[in-house]
Specification:
Helix content is 11%, strand content 54%. It is mainly β. It has an eight-stranded antiparallel barrel. The chain has one domain: Beta Barrel (Porin), CATH 2.40.160.20. The longest helix is centred in the N-terminal third of the chain and has 22 residues.
């Protein structure tokens, strides 16, 4: 009699523990891919930056639902210079491509949240950084001052039309998750702000050797994009409810 009672209590507690554990975890897909587009603005050694367009594609591996490692490819146009305001008349257009490896850390990994609460809705807020390369292809550039010939040594603006520079992207963004019919996080709407710091003088095509202007800071461009992601692959258990 006592043995049967103890066995009943044991089985009951075991079922409660298993049920509690199952309730406190969820499954998520280990991979995702996506695409998007937006605008960028350059910050280089010319008088003033200009706006350009950007498109991108991404592939991510999800270490957890809220920690990702992946690759991002970009294609776009970076513009800069306003000829009527720059005394030297400089202006450029860079038709570039870039490839970077990125790590993103999301708020949901570090906070405890209740489903439906404020932190739950903000769990997709993230900070990220990466490393890669940008292939600069200067499709248009002013190489000489107004009224001077491009062959004059005193007026020519040196630089390369084609180059490859090291690229450091820093990301701040937000993922809005949409579940499928089975309750899995399957679709993602992404909003991202990115600063891209380059190491070299290829972004604007000017080497600045004869321009006598401030060349202290690295060339960079910032972008704001909106994109869509699709999560797929095998599933893995996660300790929190998703």
């Amino acid at each position: 009699m006592i043995f049967n009672l103890l066995r009943t209590i044991y089985i009951t507690l075991l079922l409660v523990f298993i049920g509690s554990f199952s309730f406190a975890q969820s499954n998520y897909f280990k991979m995702s891919y996506g695409f998007g587009g937006g605008m960028n603005k350059s910050y280089t050694d010319v008088y003033q930056g200009d706006y350009g367009k950007i498109i991108y594609g991404v592939f991510d591996y999800h270490v957890t639902p809220f920690i990702t490692m992946g690759l991002e490819g970009q294609y776009g146009r970076i513009k800069g210079g306003i000829a009527v305001k720059d005394p030297s008349g400089r202006r450029f257009v860079n038709k570039y491509t870039a490839l970077t490896a990125n790590l993103k850390l999301m708020l949901g990994e570090f906070v405890n949240y209740n489903q439906g609460g404020l932190l739950y809705n903000m769990r997709g807020l993230y900070l990220g950084f990466g490393l890669g390369a940008i292939n600069n292809d200067i499709s248009y550039i002013v190489r000489s001052q107004p009224g001077e010939t491009s062959t004059s040594d005193n007026s020519r603006f040196d630089g390369e039309d084609k180059s490859i520079n090291l690229l450091l992207p820093i990301n701040l963004g937000f993922n809005y998750y949409i579940k499928d019919n089975y309750g899995y996080m399957r679709y993602v709407i992404n909003v991202n702000a990115q600063s891209n710091i380059t190491f070299g003088e290829g972004l604007d095509g000017y080497s600045e050797s004869k321009l006598k202007s401030n060349n202290t800071y690295p060339d960079m461009y910032n972008s704001v994009t909106v994109g869509f992601r699709y999560m797929f692959g095998s599933v893995r258990a996660y300790r929190k409810t998703l």
